[in-house]
């Protein structure tokens, strides 16, 4: 059955690609390189990686245009539903000897009217100190550094994890080859991924980056935006360490999430 939106998008895209092919006098060999590349990404399990690196930031920019509240960011290829539900005090599932500095990630979740969103679910996932994701890299235990937890009655959250490091996307596969041909590196700046859900406002997906971090200016996925960069603060005073029962310096980062309230948000929530 014809679908009007599919016609608009597919036929519009085809027209744009035709114009592009004419302008650049694309040869048959170059056309084949492109179709082979798409087939190869699927064989290498990189289909989502390739598209997310090159295109996903644009869809989030479109969604953020005219949107109230904190900006959304790309989901990336490594989100998995069904992460463990944590018990308070919240700490992301991790190895007993998890590498990396302790990080306390905290803040508030409110709607655009400033009302706290109590009992919002925060789904947090990030790479380890070697830049690897669990359930993607087989050397990392299942669900490591992935978990879900909730805000309290004032919409506050606090979770303990480790400071993630810059992440290098697989550079030996087809996606890495394309970036190499463009003279670009494969790194993404260190980041935390979050999804936030609340029945009154629906869901948002974001990423938090760290001020002053490497690759913020040259992210291979070009997904860093103002409003997503938070300050990583180091704590080393004895009283602070004792208060958290830690014997080495730790970091904290505070980020307040604001989710759009109102009719539009509710429409999104029930869609
Ligand atoms: C991409 C996004 C990520 O967050 C990540 O960790 C790796 C890759 C991507 O856009 O492909
Ligand atoms: Fe990521």
Brief summary of the model shown:
The protein is an alpha/beta fold.
CATH topology: Protocatechuate 3,4-Dioxygenase, subunit A
Estimate nothing, just give the exact number of structural domains.
1
What is the CA-CA span between the terminal residues?
22 Å
Strand content is: 15-25%
- Could you tell me which ligands this complex binds, including any ions or cofactors? 3,4-dihydroxybenzoic acid, fe (iii) ion
H/E element string? Answer: HHHEEEEEHEEEEEHEEH
Report the biggest beta sheet as strand number plus sense, adding barrel if it closes: 5 strands, mixed
Structural class: alpha/beta
Radius of gyration computed on alpha carbons:
21 Å
CATH superfamily: Aromatic compound dioxygenase
For the record, what CATH class applies?
Mainly Beta
Q: Provide the residue-averaged pLDDT.
A: 94
CATH architecture: Sandwich
Number of strands: 12
In the predicted model, the low-confidence regions spanning at least 5 consecutive residues are: none
Helix content: 25-40%
Task: Explain what the structure shows.
- Strands 1, 4, 10, 11 and 12 form a five-stranded mixed β-sheet that branches.
- A hairpin with a 3-residue loop joins β7 (191-198) and β8 (202-210).
- The chain has one domain (45-259): Aromatic compound dioxygenase (Protocatechuate 3,4-Dioxygenase, subunit A), CATH 2.60.130.10.
- It is globular.
- By secondary structure, the protein is α/β, with parallel strands linked by helices.
- The protein has helices at residues 4-23, 28-43, 47-64, 174-181, 238-243, 263-270; strands at residues 102-111, 121-125, 146-150, 156-162, 167-168, 187-188, 191-198, 202-210, 229-230, 233-235, 250-254, 257-259.
- The two termini are 22 Å apart.
- Fe (iii) ion binds next to β7.
- 3,4-dihydroxybenzoic acid (DHB) binds at residues 49, 52-53, 56, 74, 76-78, 167, 169, 188, 221.
């Amino acid at each position: 059955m014809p679908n009007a939106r599919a016609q608009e998008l597919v036929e519009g895209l085809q027209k744009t690609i035709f114009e592009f092919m004419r302008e650049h006098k694309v040869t048959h060999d170059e056309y084949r390189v492109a179709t082979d590349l798409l087939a190869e990404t699927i064989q290498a399990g990189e289909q989502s990686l390739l598209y997310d690196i090159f295109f996903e930031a644009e869809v989030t920019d479109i969604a953020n245009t005219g949107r109230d509240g904190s900006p959304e960011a790309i989901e990336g290829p490594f989100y998995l539903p069904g992460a463990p539900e944590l018990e308070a005090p919240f700490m992301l599932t991790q190895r007993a000897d998890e590498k990396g500095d302790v990080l306390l990630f905290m803040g508030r979740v409110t709607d655009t009217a400033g009302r706290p969103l109590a009992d919002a679910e925060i789904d947090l996932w990030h790479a380890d100190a070697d830049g690897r994701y669990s359930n993607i890299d087989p050397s990392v235990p299942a669900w490591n550094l992935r978990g879900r937890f909730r805000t309290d009655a004032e919409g506050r959250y606090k979770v303990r994890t480790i400071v993630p490091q810059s992440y290098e996307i697989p550079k030996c596969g087809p996606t890495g080859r394309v970036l190499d041909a463009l003279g670009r590196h494969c790194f993404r700046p260190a980041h935390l991924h979050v999804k936030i859900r609340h029945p009154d406002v629906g869901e948002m997906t974001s990423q938090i980056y760290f001020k002053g971090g490497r690759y913020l200016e040259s992210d291979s996925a070009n997904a860093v935006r103002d409003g997503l960069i938070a300050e990583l603060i180091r704590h080393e005073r004895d009283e602070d360490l004792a208060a958290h029962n830690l014997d080495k310096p730790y970091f904290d980062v505070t980020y307040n999430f604001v989710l759009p309230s109102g009719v539009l948000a509710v429409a999104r929530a029930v869609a």
